[in-house]
Specification:
The protein contains 2 helices and 14 strands, in the order αβββββββββαβββββ. The chain has 245 residues and is mainly beta. The strands form 4 sheets. A 5-stranded antiparallel beta sheet has the order 1-7-8-9-10, with no helix packed on it. The chain has a 3-stranded antiparallel beta sheet with strand order 2-3-4, with no helix packed on it.
Length: 245
């Protein structure tokens, strides 16, 4: 049997320099892991979506956190506001499993028209562009990866930095909203507790469970926080299924 040829030369595989930027349907195949070493991970998809929530002490490729995405609202003066989920059109040409599209990536809501992805671990960069929106929106996502420092490299956190630049002539009022659902204890949703917390210059949503003991594999906590001073936090069903922040 003839050997299948690798479509890259040895020189290309070993070359240094800038990483390639991926666009179009190539973005469907990207899952960039975010999270501390040995702590589980959430992956950043090529379209800017959060996918593969592997936080439950087991592999979980394909598992999503329902309604976990970021949304941008921009308004010029008294004009009608424009809203976009800060993602490209996540998902392949065949999605929905025969019934409907997944809500986890904001399907059904307007998304940015274009996205491009460049990865250079532990950093990932996603650019979002929209022909109807005079804004450049960029995302830098990173891990707490510090060579020769296993303690700080194992901090269970994913850092997302969104940058918004006005490319038009009008002054814009821009807001960024992040959603996160408390999935601690999955698949058992009973006893989930969600709270608003503010400490050490951070404010946001904190989720845990009151049903499981601290030594249980089902126990844990999760949070969505920001150092941005002008921040509001809302909870939905704080004593039941979790919260949206």
């Amino acid at each position: 049997m003839a050997k299948k040829q690798i479509p890259y030369s040895t020189r290309e595989l070993l070359a240094t320099g800038p990483q390639p930027t991926r666009k179009g349907r190539e973005l469907d195949e990207i899952a960039f892991p975010l999270g501390g070493l040995g702590t589980g991970a959430v992956s950043l998809g090529g379209w800017g979506q959060l996918r593969d929530w592997e936080l439950m002490n087991r592999p979980a490729k394909g598992f999503g956190n329902d309604m976990a995405f970021f949304t941008l609202r921009a308004q010029a003066g008294g004009d009608a506001p424009v809203v976009r989920v800060v993602q490209g059109h996540a998902g392949s040409d065949h999605i929905g499993g025969g019934h409907s599209a997944a809500r986890g990536s904001g399907q059904g809501l307007p998304h940015f028209h274009r996205a491009s992805f460049t990865g250079s671990y532990p950093f990932a960069h996603v650019k979002f562009r929209d022909k109807d929106l005079p804004l450049k929106v960029d995302l830098e996502a990173l891990n707490p990866f510090i060579p020769l420092n296993d303690k700080d490299s194992g901090i269970p956190v994913a850092i997302l930095r969104y940058t918004v630049k006005n490319t038009g002539k009008q002054t814009l009022s821009v807001s960024l909203m992040g959603n996160l659902t408390n999935i601690v204890g999955h698949p058992d949703g009973e006893g989930r507790v969600s709270k608003v917390r503010s400490a050490r210059g951070l404010k946001g949503f904190y989720g845990t469970t009151s049903k499981h003991a601290e030594d249980s594999p089902a126990f844990g906590s999760m949070a969505l926080t920001t150092p941005w001073e002008d921040t509001d936090v809302w909870l939905q069903n704080p004593d039941r299924s979790g919260g949206l922040a």
